[in-house]
Design goal:
By secondary structure, the protein is α/β, with parallel strands linked by helices. It has six helices and seven strands, in the order E-H-E-E-H-E-E-H-H-E-H-H-E.
């Protein structure tokens, strides 16, 4: 099963770059089955739809504009995107992601399993570092992803 772990975000706006930081964290600390791709989607949106359509399972990581404390983790399934049951504006990429999924679904090329792990940001100030609240969530996010992948029979192991 081809698995895509897609990190979205703008590295120049502190917490807005969480998805990209998360993919880099995963690459530095874990090894995966050969059919797992870690992808820095940045702010590509539609330009990365081919990556989504090549996979059987997709895990997206991004910030979500939701009430709550900075660093709060949230999990959404594809039906929330396609059915638009999620808030109108979840993240700066949300409309691009939502539209990308809908277009792929209309074309019959959207994977059955798409999960978004989102985190509530603290800051969108200019800067290349995550806030301490979001940095602290990287290991927790990795543990959640590892649990899901292992349940699906996909290897994700911590490196030495």
């Amino acid at each position: 099963m081809k698995v895509l772990i897609f990190g979205a975000g703008n590295l120049l706006l502190s917490d807005e770059g969480f998805g990209v930081h998360a993919v880099r964290y995963l690459a530095e600390h874990f090894s995966f089955d050969d059919d797992v791709e870690l992808y820095d989607g940045g702010t590509l949106g539609f330009m990365a739809s081919h990556k989504l359509e090549e996979a059987q399972a997709v895990y997206m990581i991004d910030v979500v504009t939701t009430p709550g404390e900075p660093g709060a983790l949230h999990r959404f399934e594809k039906e929330a995107f396609i059915g638009r049951t999620i808030p109108v504006k979840m993240s700066p990429h949300q409309l691009g992601i939502q539209e990308m999924l809908l277009l792929s679904d209309i074309r019959g090329r959207c994977p059955d399993q798409v999960t978004l792990f989102g985190v509530t940001p603290k800051s969108y100030e200019a800067g290349i570092e995550l806030s301490p609240e979001l940095t602290a969530r990287l290991p927790e996010l990795a543990a959640l992803l590892q649990k899901e992948l292992q349940a699906a029979g996909v290897r994700m192991e911590a490196m030495g």
